[in-house]
Amino acid sequence: MERTTDGLKAALDTAFAAMQEGRESHTPQLALREVGTVINVSNGIAKVSGLPGVGYEELVQFPGGLQGIAFNIDEEETGVVLLGNYWNLNAGDEVLRTGRVMDVPVGEGLIGRVLTPLGLPLDGKGPIAFTRRLPIERPAPHIMDRQPVSVPLQTGIKAIDALIPIGRGQRELILGDRQTGKTAIALDAILNQKGEDVICVYCAIGQRASSVAKVAALLEEKGAMEYTIVIVTEGNDPPGLAYIAPYAATSVAEFLMESGRDVLIVYDDLTHHARAYRELSLLLRRPPGREAFPGDIFYIHSRLLERATTLRPELGGGSLTALPIIETEAQNISAYIPTNLISITDGQAYLSPKLFELGVLPAIDVGKSVSRVGGKAQRAAYRAVAGDLKLAYSQFEELESFARFGTRLDTHTRQAIDHGRRIRACLKQPEGEPIPAHKQIIVLLALTGGLLDSIPLDKMREAERALFDAADTLPEALRRSLASTEPFEEQSRKTILETAERALVHLRNSNGS
After folding, report:
1. Could you say which architecture CATH assigns to the domain 104-378?
2. Which of 37, 72, 359, 512 is 20 to 30 Å from the Cα of 294, by its Cα?
3. Cα dihedral angle (271, 274, 278, 284), rounded to 10 degrees?
4. Which stretches within 284-352 are classed as H helix?
């Protein structure tokens, strides 16, 4: 019995000794967290106290999964931009630091999807497959990492491809009053990238849900969603989401560009973005400047658009082409936001409400539109006709204004006006029907060659269809050369003009010519 008691006592002593040793060697794992408190909640922002270590644009977490970005960092409080529905957020709620900046999922798996700027799917196709996450705010590529614009980005729109060409890596502003067809031009450019190995990103900023649904349905119907990513903020979303949307979309596009892909991004539109930033700034009591926009709105947009470029071959040779859209008021292109963006971008396509009312669609005002770098990338066949076409059209617009006074016109002036009317008729184009390069070129060559001058204006659409059909009969080698960087030979011009002449014979005969 004594042996049993001694053995039990020894076992207990060993156990107590092990427990004592374990207690002395144990180091508790303490999780340190900075916890703040919501002071008040306004329309899309919250004032928070108690986050002494928070950094600028750091992501913070609220109850219920709501996130925000630290925007104003003052001694006593932090102004936070809210990124979601904040109806259940109240004063006194806890706020946690996350220690990271706002980021977005990126990768090839996003192609064909409709997302929010937070990376949440809106298309009902299940979770998103992504490669990794990137910050929405990233430095623009260094100057030595860029190369000049040298490859055209065909939009399928005759007026743009011939007169204000866009190159891959360029930033071309689309501006005009509301309801003049700005989005239609951007969508035609997206539709024309089918088969061109260009990934498109369409970023809708503060748009009506019905408008975005219409755009997504059009892209789906035309088969463009196979190479397009749509990032959406609706008009009733908090202003914080509208503010981060273009940056999130650009990070998605940049990942693809850095993978060696050519990417086209459309911001529709930056007027809503500027207004969202103004709303946030005024709520956060940032000092307003000209036209009540904060003075740094120029920097906000420039650091966004400077991310569009063409990378050097050693870095993959990818490109990011930006088509920002803005809305003018009463044709005032000298307002604060339009002038800011005109100075940042490499050219602009201005849409005139007067041309829109006349039924000249797309309503591009050639005189006020320009492309500062795209001409270097324009294909040789376009360059062969673009100079004469732009000069003749500009002369026509001046003479047409002069002719309205009822002045008697000489024969040469009447011919210039008749020729200009045919140019205007040829530059008309239905929405959603981008035109391949070889079909555009046969029409433009016939136009500058005077072959259409004897065609009645009411038969111009029929003549254009005949030329399109004739373009498909051109030799395959010639069509390939028109779509390449090869020089435009005189023999090619002669072949195209002869083909156009044959296609227009029956229309001339019907006119008694």
Report:
1. 3-Layer(aba) Sandwich (3.40)
2. 37
3. 150
4. 297-305, 336-344
How many other CB atoms are found less than 10 A from the CB of residue 93?
17
Per-residue pLDDT reduced to its tens digit, 74-84 = 988 999 999 99
CA dihedral 289, 291, 296, 300 (to 10 degrees): 170
To which H or E segment does residue 61 belong? strand 58-61
pLDDT tens per residue, range 316-330: 999 999 999 999 999
Task: Tell me if 429 sits within 8 A of 158, measured CB to CB.
Answer: yes
- Average pLDDT, integer, range 336-357: 95
d(CA 114, CA 229): 6
* Strand ranges inside 275-346, DSSP E: 319-327
Q: Is the peptide bond before 362 cis (omega within 30 degrees of 0)?
A: yes
- Asked whether the beta carbons of 460 and 426 are under 8 A apart, the reply is yes
Catalytic residues: 372
Over the range 365-381, which residues count as b (16 or more CB within 10 Å of their CB) and which as e?
Answer: bbeebbbebbbebbbeb
For residue 172, which of 389, 381, 348, 367 has the smallest C-alpha distance?
Answer: 348
Helix (H), strand (E) at residue 79: strand 78-82
Residue 512 pLDDT exceeds 50: no
Are 119 and 128 in contact by the 8 Å Cβ rule? The answer is yes
Q: Give the Cα separation of 199 and 190 in Å (integer).
A: 9
Alpha carbon of 13 to those of 5, 9, 16, 86, 275: distances in Å?
Answer: 12, 6, 5, 60, 75
- The structure's pTM equals 0.91
Domain 382-510 homologous superfamily, CATH = ATP synthase alpha/beta chain, C-terminal domain (1.20.150.20)
Architecture of domain 35-100: Beta Barrel (2.40)
Cis peptide before 269 (omega within 30 of 0): yes
